[in-house]
Structure to design on (590 residues):
């Protein structure tokens, strides 16, 4: 796009999906990732030497950055871990790659970003097709380093995304969960992505970090430029480009009202979670990092119902050691004891690829149906056992529960439990302390697990229903695809019947059932879930007050009747309306 183009700066409202509540007004920082988002233009022959010089400067800057990272990793983690960056440096010095890029500039006449990207893609593909596993892994090195170089060429990379994002609205095609986690620390105002849905992991992270977010904003990345002013409404899912003074004034008022409501809810959340007819409900928190136990206390949660341990792995350039994991799990357990902390074993894969784990995870056509979670762990016994030992050891310091993700049936549960038994025996032999009675549960998030809940209930101490995945797999709705996000219906009859079945089978075997998917954090569904017999709800910490408010406003007898009625309905929309009317009739905080 020519820079002297006159741009339309009239206010425009673009619809998206409300993903994380809050309102933010600020300037855009565009985080470009894929080739589709790369700028494309012709470079006249006379300007090509300038383009070559730009490429050389970017190569130099990238080399310096990689050397700096290497030195830091070496200092913190040791020479072995730092060696991976030698491979990155080699890519940056590869004369064939550099030469081919410059030839591409001459023959195609395209800007250097396009040329380099095209050549790097050819290299990546060539490496990916090699039989030899070691050489195949080099594709990941080229991809990493190419990304960094491209960011330098685009003027983004002198700092990391986190640093660039400070005090900006981050607009991206998509964001990974670890990038989303970094945004909070960097002080980003909000984020908006072209793709994604309410249950994508980046969104889940944003919600617990309290960063407002709108996803599924379609082609926003092509409509804004760095520095444009936008307003993000994470309550309604709107992005307003070039907002007028009147709009800003209106949103200022909305923001004040929302803040007031939040304060009142927080005040009310200091009361116990007891229904009007005297039934106490456990409301627990979902956390991604041990440090978030502070939030659990701030929002008066009854401990942690889901500790997603994969974030420890996502934020590290390599697999964390048993000691590192033990320290994290122990600190969470100690911070909240005697309240429970349910630690879930590793759930990598799906939309949570491990940045430093290219050698552990192959590229898959369907990652959500692929080598994910407990499937990966059972194939990587060393990694799995490290984690199980760390969790067992932490169980000596608090009320630790262990839970497996993505169990598909009884045999898989038995295999996981057998590895756990080995770890117990090893610790026992070494005289290392752990709680021999630590409760062990399983997530129910795959239809086959739901259908065999009666069998699974015989071999574990509790169930936790992962509605994010359960709904995804029951309705065949990819949880990160914005185009079908409207089909993701928590009140679909298939979902309600499945939830009912799981709870019935669990209670028949005297084990408790929690729900820890995003559905549990939506106050509109609190009565439905409790009415279906769910014993505990676990959610992102900032959602605890509003759900507690809903629980305190209902009678369990009414909730049961609501669930019975909902189970009779034939359509998702009718059941949704039933829940909304029930909620509105009882809860009014505005
Ligand atoms: C779920 O699937 O509902 C769940 C809680 O797990 P995750 O969102 O981490 O997949
Ligand atoms: Mg899940």
């Amino acid at each position: 796009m020519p820079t002297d183009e006159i741009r339309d700066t009239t206010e425009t409202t673009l619809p998206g999906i409300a993903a994380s509540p809050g309102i933010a007004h600020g300037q855009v920082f565009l985080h470009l990732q894929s080739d589709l988002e790369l700028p494309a233009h012709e470079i006249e022959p006379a300007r090509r030497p300038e383009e070559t010089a730009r490429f050389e400067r970017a190569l130099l800057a990238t080399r310096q950055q990689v050397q700096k990272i290497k030195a830091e990793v070496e200092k913190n983690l040791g020479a072995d871990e730092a060696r991976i960056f030698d491979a990155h440096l080699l890519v940056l010095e590869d004369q064939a790659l550099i030469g081919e890029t410059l030839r591409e500039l001459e023959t195609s006449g395209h800007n250097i970003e396009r040329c380099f990207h095209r050549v790097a893609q050819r290299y990546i593909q060539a490496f990916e097709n090699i039989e030899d596993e070691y050489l195949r892994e080099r594709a990941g090195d080229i991809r990493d380093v190419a990304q960094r170089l491209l960011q330098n060429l685009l003027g983004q990379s002198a700092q990391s995304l986190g640093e660039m994002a400070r005090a900006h609205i981050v607009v991206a095609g998509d964001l990974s969960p670890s990038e989303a986690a970094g945004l909070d620390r960097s002080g980003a105002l909000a984020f908006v992505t072209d793709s994604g849905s309410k249950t994508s992991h980046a969104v889940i992270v944003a919600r617990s970090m309290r960063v407002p977010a709108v996803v599924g904003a379609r082609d926003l990345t092509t409509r804004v430029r760095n520095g444009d002013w936008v307003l993000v409404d994470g309550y309604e899912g709107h992005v307003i480009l070039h907002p007028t003074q009147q709009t800003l004034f209106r949103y200022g008022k909305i923001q004040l009202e929302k803040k007031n409501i939040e304060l009142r809810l927080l005040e009310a959340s200091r009361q116990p979670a007891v229904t009007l007819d005297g039934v106490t409900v456990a409301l627990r928190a979902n956390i991604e990092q041990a440090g978030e136990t502070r939030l659990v206390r701030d929002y008066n949660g009854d401990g942690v119902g889901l500790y997603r341990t994969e974030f420890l792995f996502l934020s590290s350039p390599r697999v964390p050691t048993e000691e590192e994991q033990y320290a994290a799990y122990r600190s969470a357990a100690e911070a909240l004891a005697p309240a429970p902390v349910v630690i879930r074993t590793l759930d990598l894969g799906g939309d949570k690829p491990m940045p430093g784990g290219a050698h552990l995870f192959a590229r898959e056509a369907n990652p959500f149906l692929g080598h994910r979670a407990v499937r990966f762990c059972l194939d990587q016994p060393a990694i799995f056992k490290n984690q199980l030992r760390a969790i067992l050891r932490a169980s000596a310091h608090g009320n630790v529960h262990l839970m497996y993700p993505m169990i598909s049936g009884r045999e898989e549960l038995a295999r996981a439990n057998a590895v756990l038994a080995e770890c117990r025996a090893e610790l026992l032999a070494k005289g290392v302390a752990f709680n021999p009675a630590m409760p062990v549960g399983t997530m129910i998030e795959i239809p086959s697990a739901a259908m065999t809940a009666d069998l699974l209930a015989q071999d574990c101490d509790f169930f936790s229903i992962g509605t994010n995945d359960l709904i995804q797999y029951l309705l065949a709705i990819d949880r990160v695809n914005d185009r079908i996000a409207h089909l993701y219906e928590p009140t679909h009859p298939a979902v309600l019947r499945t939830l009912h079945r799981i709870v019935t089978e669990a209670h028949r075997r005297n084990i408790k059932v929690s729900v820890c998917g995003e559905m549990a954090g939506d106050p509109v569904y609190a009565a439905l879930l409790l009415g279906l017999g769910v014993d505990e709800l676990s959610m992102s910490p900032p959602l605890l007050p509003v759900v507690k408010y809903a629980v305190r406003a209902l009678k369990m007898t009414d909730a049961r009747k609501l669930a019975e009625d909902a189970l009779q309905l034939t359509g998702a929309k009718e059941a949704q309306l039933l829940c909304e009317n029930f909620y509105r009739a009882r809860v009014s905080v505005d």
Observations:
- Residues 1-5 have pLDDT under 50 and may be disordered.
